[in-house]
Amino acid sequence: MRCDKKKIENILAICVVSIFLGQIYISPLNSAIRFSFSVVALSLMLVFLRNVPVMLSAVAVACTIFVFRCFVGKINSPDVSLVRIMVTYYGAVVFYLVYGAMFKVLDIRERIKIPFKNFVYLFFAEVTANIIELTATSWRIESTFEDNLKVIIIAGRIRTTFAVGLYYFINYYFLRYEKEQRENKFREMVFLVSSLKTELFFLKKSTKDIEEAMNKSFRIYQNAKEPSLKEDALSVSKDIHEIKKDYMRVMTGIERTLEEKSVFDYMTIDHLFRIIEDNTRKVISSKGKKINMFFKYEENFRTLEHYSLISILNNLIINAIDAIDNEGDIRVLQYSEDDNLCFTIEDTGGGIEEEDMKLIFEPGYSTKLDMETGEFSSGIGLTHVKQIVEKYFEGEMTVESQKGSGTVFKLVMGRDKIIFNPEGDDNGY
């Protein structure tokens, strides 16, 4: 049988922690009997390390604690025989073997999740193990069985309470960590899908351009009189057609991926703002800036266009972050004007030069310089945003800026293009 390295490592970890906590004792009612907290460690590690066998772990802990105590006992009392020291500490072996058996028989790993019952089962397992240990070592204990039983019950309550309390504490932080990981993965998925949706929009636009180029090429072929020109025009037309087919395959693949990856059919503006805000704060932190974020909405509507909206707003917010040198404010507002929904993204950055205002939506225009590579940004962000707003949402995008004071981008889009009202839901919430 192949040894499971991970199981062995976990069992060794249980033994080491049990030995360490075995040095922490309590002696209720000034009893001569000492109760260590190693059983608390054993219980919790058996619960959380589910890949290790219960009895094998109990045997390992029993042996290691016994050997460790005998070793320490011999060092502290070199004149005492090893046999006598072993007789003194063999009760620990009895306790951990019985406790491991009770832990397995009572199936505490599963019942630990049940409030109150988890305390009862752990307490019963510990008291039973202690009583059997006491019976096995009663010949060397002077106090009466009744007195010792009281001490066992008190110690059992203390250690069980400690174990259950620690279980809930650790479980709480595990759940918090898992929730945070799920939320991070969810946010990453939303931004990935938003990005793909944006690229798909421009792929479709490019496909129309390709169709137009193919039609022009074919018209040249039809009208050309020279055989060589006709042949070249036909060849170009065929090549363009092949490129179009490749585009269609790519678009089909992206659309299929989007169907699989889409997390929600619709999203409320409140949820959408929270996702963008969480991502924005991470971006701000990574850039080492001190920027205050403000998100406010007038109407918490539902929308099926959440991915496109996230892509648009996120792009403008990232631009706003880049426009602020170190400290500043960014405000994202949503409100209504007649039958339109409006979004404004306002920053207190350096603003835009007046002569640049007519160029900012032109492809390739950029003032962002990568200090590491010495290259400017591709300058397609604002171009993409404007085209999505105007072509896809049939809306309008404007900008106002004052050098040294900041910039305000305003998006105006029809309510019917964004708001989703499920059948029978008049409120849109």
From TrEMBL:
Gene Ontology molecular function: any one: phosphorelay sensor kinase activity
Alphabetized UniProt keyword annotations: Kinase, Membrane, Phosphoprotein, Transferase, Transmembrane, Transmembrane helix, Two-component regulatory system
Keyword Kinase attached: yes
Pfam families on file: HATPase_c
Catalytic reaction(s) noted: ATP + protein L-histidine = ADP + protein N-phospho-L-histidine
Keyword Transferase set for record: yes
Matches recorded under InterPro entries: HATPase_C_sf, HATPase_dom, His_kinase_dom, Sig_transdc_His_kin-like_C
Name the UniProt record assigns to this protein: histidine kinase
Gene3D superfamilies in the cross-refs: Histidine kinase-like ATPase, C-terminal domain
Domain Histidine kinase: 309-417
Organism encoding this protein: Dethiosulfatibacter aminovorans DSM 17477
EC nos: 2.7.13.3
Transmembrane residue ranges: 7-26, 56-75, 87-106, 151-175
